[in-house]
Specification:
The chain has 215 residues and is α+β, with helices and mostly antiparallel strands. The chain has helices spanning 13-21, 102-111, 113-139, 142-157, 168-174, 179-191, 207-213, and strands spanning 23-28, 33-35, 43-49, 52-57, 63-69, 74-75, 88-91, 95-101, 161-163, 195-198, 201-204. A 4-stranded antiparallel beta sheet has the order 1-8-3-6. A 4-stranded antiparallel beta sheet has the order 2-7-4-5. The longest helix has 27 residues, at 113-139. The two termini are 33 Å apart.
């Protein structure tokens, strides 16, 4: 199951098998809370189906979305190295997850230096990706943020017909814009013949031109 996920693409088959063997399948109903700040860390999670919102609370009591983990994504990656979780995770729809168990994962990290090195390389790539995403959210205009996200989903889902993991209003907040700006910008992309929106599905009609917009 893990072998087809982009996040684990560079892990060797033996280590993918090891992670599979320590994985526990979990089902979450829409709206169910997976963990909250202060809960003991059980490990990290991989989304097989569905979507999970990871969020925290500001000092004013407003929730702040950190991540929307859709199909093929992993989240709470650093939690095996912490005693507790530091944020909330809530299912945005009925979801099926893998829990990669904390102690078994740590035993593999500490007992196999080759795996530890591979894991560090993978984490480094994730940090680079996160920095790029932060730049997208803070420096780039709304159209480029949306296009970047569409292309990321296309890569994750390995398809030019992609499914949004959450409603568009929630996605607009995640991308750091009002839902009015999101709707207006996506309509421009549609009118330009780059994409076609049908409910929660986006068909990419001209991937090359979309890619040019992110350069």
């Amino acid at each position: 199951m893990l072998a087809g996920l982009p996040i684990f693409a560079n892990l060797s088959p033996e280590y993918l098998q090891a992670l599979e063997e320590m994985a526990q399948e979990i089902f979450l109903a829409k709206g169910a809370l997976l963990f909250a700040p202060g809960d003991s860390s059980r490990g990290f999670f991989v989304v097989l189906d569905g979507a999970v919102r990871v969020y925290g609370m500001s000092s004013q009591g407003k929730d702040i979305t950190h991540e929307i983990a859709g199909q093929g994504s992993a989240f709470a990656i650093a939690s095996p190295f912490a005693g507790t979780y530091h944020c909330f995770a809530e299912a945005l729809k009925d979801s099926r997850l893998y829990l990669i168990k904390k102690q078994e994962f740590l035993d593999l990290v500490t007992g196999d230096i080759k795996f530890a090195a591979e894991w560090i390389r993978m984490q480094s790539r994730m940090i680079i990706h996160l920095r790029r995403r932060l730049a997208d959210l803070t420096l780039k205009p709304p159209k480029e943020r949306i296009v970047n996200y569409i292309l990321l989903l296309a890569e994750m889902q390995d398809s030019r017909s992609i499914t949004l993991p959450v409603p568009r209003k929630e996605l607009a907040t995640f991308l750091g814009m009002t839902h009015e700006t999101f709707y207006r910008t996506t309509k421009e992309l549609s009118n330009d013949g780059l994409v076609r929106f049908t409910g929660q599905t986006i068909d990419i009609l001209d991937q090359d031109r979309l890619a040019e917009m992110t350069e």
